[in-house]
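Deliverable D5.2: sample structural annotation.
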Amino acid sequence: MSFQFSPEEFLRDTKATAEAIGAAYSEEATRKVLDTYADSLRDGAVLWRATDRPGDALNYRFYERIPTNSVTTAIRAGLLDPKNPMIDLISAWSSLYSGTSTELCDFDAEHGLSKTWIYLGGMRPLEQILGVPGVPRVLRAHESRFRELGLTSVRHVAVDYRSSTASLYFRTSRKITWTELEQLLTLVGGELPTPELFSHMEKFTSPDGFTFSVTAAAGGAEIQQVGVYALRLPVGQFPVVGDRLATFFDSAPSYDDEEMNAPAWSFGPGGKNYVKAERSYCGRLVELMKQWNSPMTTVY
């Protein structure tokens, strides 16, 4: 029998995981999220997220299986300021494609709601995603460059309410190479990884493509960050991720039917690089990722 999400058990697990990696935790904020999104957390897929940067937040996320209006829910519950400038953009993205999109939410274990994602119901053309009102100008300005780099199909989009940033998540169609990464990092003027780090990226990204993210601030003139995701590592195998994320993978509990661990290498201008990591908690996340045709390291 599959694990059944329990709010009280999740509270204990969140507190223990936050303590293990040195992240802040608020029981009050976490309880409010659990009360507000009880159905989504019970019926969706839930995962943990952390970074290798000391003191960064422990995040958790739910993935919906049905279309929902999580933004309105957040506003009504007092989790989101209705004047937040990113609401119009995420609502415009969510309204695309005749109700086939689903909303996903990220939460900070100390502060509550931090981010809303949209799964767009499939692979969508770049021009349609960039064409809605409120898309940061810098993303629109890079449309031709995205195309030159083969970044034409978008699966997810997201906004971060705290940093006022927007992100596009592209699906590439081939194995990562040093030359391709070098070209992709021109989007941010980022420093290339060490050969050792790249060897891990090459080993753990899917042979038939990978997820590539691009993030920009609403009023910014430059792209802030890009990222390469390796979704679903082979069980028991991990790239070198540093002590904090090693502790995260070891400490964050996973009760899912199939374990999903994922690193993401993030690159910014001037060597502002870091590593993110995700780990499934419950809700058959791998099953959902297969339905989305996500590029996973372990190929079936």
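Annotation notes: The chain is about 30% helix and 25% strand. The chain has one domain: 7-292.
The annotation will be released with the project's public dataset once the embargo ends.
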